[in-house]
Design goal:
The chain contains 8 helices and no strands.
């Protein structure tokens, strides 16, 4: 051999520090935590209740719904003007699934955003818990659930709630 050795775990002090692996432990929830988190998610869904009302699309939502129709008809987000809708390309496919199931209406177009918004509240609880403790997780998820920005953007047939969800997921 040329005198080089393979590095072992003893060469890295972080492997001997239990704190380094603490954040990778499986997160367990007590019954009280689960009830609390699901109550906060229910509050978030209640705050986003306008999805159940038949509020008409505004212009950006209508274009996004048309791109989803293009996905259903052509397999990619083609608008009636024969232009491809490049914005939120992946979200157009998710919206197409919802419209394919529930029909092309305001409810179906807004449902993915509501679900992703509520799931973001759930994810934020776990991020806060991992960063500090259960109290921080609950407090941060409550603040997000009643945030006016969260409520507004989770009601819209746009990709803002999806972007927020995946940002939290990969944080």
């Amino acid at each position: 051999m040329s005198g080089r050795t393979v590095a072992s775990t003893t060469d890295f002090p972080a492997f001997h520090n239990r704190q380094a692996f603490r954040m990778f432990k499986r997160t367990r929830m007590t019954i009280l935590e689960a009830i609390s988190v699901f109550a906060v998610v229910a509050v978030a869904l209640g705050m986003e209740q306008e999805i159940w009302a038949c509020r008409q699309f505004w212009s950006d939502e209508a274009v996004f719904a048309l791109s989803a129709e293009g996905v259903l008809k052509h397999g990619y987000p083609l608008l009636p003007s024969n232009r491809i809708y490049p914005t939120s390309f992946i979200s157009s496919y998710g919206l197409a699934v919802s419209i394919g199931i529930f029909g092309n209406n305001e409810f179906a177009a807004r449902l993915p955003s509501v679900l992703f918004g509520a799931a973001s509240v759930f994810l934020l609880y776990f991020l806060g818990k991992r960063a500090s403790n259960v109290g921080l997780g609950l407090l941060s998820s409550i603040i997000l659930a009643v945030s006016p920005f969260e409520i507004v953007w989770s009601r819209e047939a746009r990709s803002y709630a999806e972007f927020q969800f995946f940002s939290l997921l990969f944080a």
